[in-house]
Design goal:
By secondary structure, the chain is α/β, with parallel strands linked by helices. Helices cover 54% and strands 13% of the residues. It folds into three domains: 4-147, no CATH class; 149-220, no CATH class; 240-303, no CATH class. The chain has 14 helices and seven strands. The protein has a five-stranded mixed sheet, with helices on both faces. The protein has a two-stranded antiparallel ribbon with strand order 5-6. A hairpin with an 8-residue loop joins strand 2 (61-66) and strand 3 (75-82). The protein is globular.
Length: 309
């Protein structure tokens, strides 16, 4: 399973790639009137750090929602992912929400927390008071993914819900069906090949199919498995085609090498993010056969070290 930093990055990518769908799923109570014409703008986290310091979780994704007709004041959503509910602090979230309110000079701020796991002791509200007066009341929207029944979302047209099926509640006997429904939803609701590759990895990370389960999936869902393999082959061919075009100017062999290397580098960045220096060195030093070998293994590997051994 990915570490905490990976969870943060996984969900940050998901929210920024699908902001409308993320709000509809994770903040349904406030998102009912968010029509497709509503403009959603991610606010750079780096801008907030300068004001708020680094004591907040890595995943703080503020989204500014604006209505084009101007009849409604803009609404600011802030979404956080909490892998371990025991680390959650409602006081910290309240502090962060107040700072956002001050920073953007608005009282229309909606705090949203995504709990990957459940805990009965999660504080859902905060009330600062004395015997005589009430001084602060604070609550937030939250989704405990592991409590949601996965089968309820098998037919969902919300891609964020479908991709999170492995994070929901399901019986062990349904694991392969859950995985298949997530993949089917991805292919049905996302047309971009690059994003399909990117979120196949998301589903893989949270499904954690073992070798036997993956073979069972391949037997039961050959059409989807064939499409997954075809994506990798298509990207590889596109890279080689690009390399051939470059080769007409730079020499066929060098162009092919750069095409394969470029296709591999693109897939690595989609799956693992920015590449460390040691990976760049390996790519630059690799032969055509090594690059092609890594390209065919990328879907089945969960980390860079395992892939590039």
């Amino acid at each position: 399973m990915a570490n905490r930093k990976s969870h943060d990055q996984n969900f940050k990518n998901l929210i920024l790639d699908y902001p409308h769908e993320a709000l509809a799923f994770f903040a349904a109570e406030e998102a009912e009137d968010l029509t497709p014409s509503v403009k959603i703008t991610p606010i750079r986290q780096e801008q907030l750090k300068e004001r708020l310091g680094d004591r907040f979780h890595e995943l703080d994704v503020p989204l500014l929602v604006e209505w084009p007709d101007g009849r409604r004041e803009a609404l600011l959503f802030t979404l956080e992912e909490e892998t371990d509910p025991n680390r959650f602090s409602i006081h910290r979230l309240a502090h962060y929400t107040l700072h956002l309110s001050e920073l953007f000079e608005t009282e229309r701020v909606v705090p949203v927390v995504i709990f990957l796991h459940s805990n009965q002791n999660i504080a859902e509200s905060l009330h600062i008071k004395s015997e005589r007066h009430s001084y602060l009341q604070f609550s937030y929207l939250h989704t405990e993914l592991s409590r949601l029944p996965a089968k309820q979302f098998f037919g969902s047209q919300n891609i964020v819900a479908r991709l999170n099926l492995p994070n929901m509640n399901w019986a062990d006997k349904d694991k392969i069906e859950v995985y298949a429904s997530a993949i089917q939803g991805l292919f049905a609701l996302e047309s971009s090949v690059e994003k399909q590759l990117k979120y196949i990895d998301f589903v893989d990370i949270y499904s954690e199919l073992n070798e036997d389960e993956r073979k069972a999936y391949q037997r039961r869902y050959p059409q989807e498995e064939s499409k997954m393999a075809g994506l990798a082959e298509r990207l590889r061919n596109e890279g080689m085609q690009q390399g051939m075009q470059q080769g007409m100017q730079q020499g066929m062999q060098q162009g092919l090498h750069e095409g394969i290397e470029g296709a591999l580098r693109l897939q690595l960045k989609l799956k693992f993010g920015e590449l460390p220096e040691w990976v760049e060195v390996k790519l630059q030093q690799a032969s055509d056969s090594q690059l092609t070998h890594w390209l065919t293994r990328i879907l089945s590997c969960d980390n860079l070290s395992e892939l590039l051994e």
